[in-house]
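Support case: farnesyl diphosphate complex. Customer-provided input:
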Amino acid sequence: MSERTHIPRHVAIIMDGNGRWATLHGKKRSEGHAAGVEPVRAALRAAIRHGVEYLTLYAFSTENWGRPQPEVDALMELFCQSVVNETPELVRQGIALRMIGDRSRFSEKVQQHLAQAENATVEGKRLTLILALNYSSRDEIVRAVRELATRAITGDLAPNEICEQVIASALDTANYPDPDLLIRTSGEQRLSNFLLWQASYTELWFPEVLWPDFTEKDFDSALEEYARRDRRFGLVK
Ligand code: FPP
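Agent response - structure generated as follows:
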């Protein structure tokens, strides 16, 4: 069996290269991140135009806390500003905003802004935008295993009932299909702790473009490449 569906239901993006873009243009790293907001809008426009149902963006990894404090602070401010400013447009476009990752480490203010944006966009039916914030796959898996172990201890779950579906339903992504296509910009070719479980059969695409330069055309090119791929899911044709 082979599957050739031309439009991915779920596209995931590692938005990489903001820092290099800033250096290239003689700007601060935080300015590189600010320049990364317009490409998010472009990716959303293109995703909607193609009928993609889910778009997951790796916005902040658990490892990113180790960056210089001014950069972390600038990113937090940018997330708050962006979700507040963009919420009316998300509502207008029928986009539901969701998050994956451990939000408990964010400040009260950041958590409030994120929750308000999620609540305001809850009716969105056209596309689900999933922001990965304080996310890493290993951290997500650790949290899921803890939850399952707790259920096993309390007698709610027998160890031999644990199967792929049970694990998948304990992950942050329980309500979403696995990504069909994963794009990482800036030419780097690795997953960096992003959706490791979910990307088992995901098609990968590594364009050279730095994230602040990413346009709707780049999204179109990724989908053209995806349409050429022959997904076999480990089976023979
Ligand atoms: C990676 O580039 C990018 C990030 C860690 C931040 C991503 C954030 C945005 C694109 C801002 C807009 C997002 C939303 C959701 C409003 P890097 O800093 O690692 O780049 P480098 O590898 O060139 O240093």
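Residues 111 and 117 are 10 Å apart (CA to CA).

Case will auto-close in a few days if no follow-up is received.
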